[in-house]
Amino acid sequence: MYLLNVRGKYRHIPSPRMASFWLGHFPEIERERTKGLGDNPTDELFLKWASEVGTLYVLHFLWMPVIIALDPSDVEAVHMTPHHKKVKLITDNSGYVFGERFLGDGLFTIRDYETWKPRRKMYDPAFNRGYLKTLVPMFEKCVNKLLDQLRPLADGRTEVPMKKHLSDAATDVISKVAFASDFSDVCQIKLAGLRNITVVEGKVDSLIQYVFVGVQKSLNNPLYKYFHPYEAEGYREAIRALRSIGRECIQMRIKALDNGEEVPNDILTCILKVASADETAHIETLVDDFLTFYVAGQETTANTLSFAVILVHQHPEVLKRLLAEIDEVLGSRTSVTAEDLEKLKYTEQTLVGPMCQLPQYFDNPSTFNPSRFDPENKRPSPFVFYPFGVGHRACIGRHFAMVCDRVGEGVRHALRI
Question: pTM for the full model?
Answer without folding.
Answer: 0.82
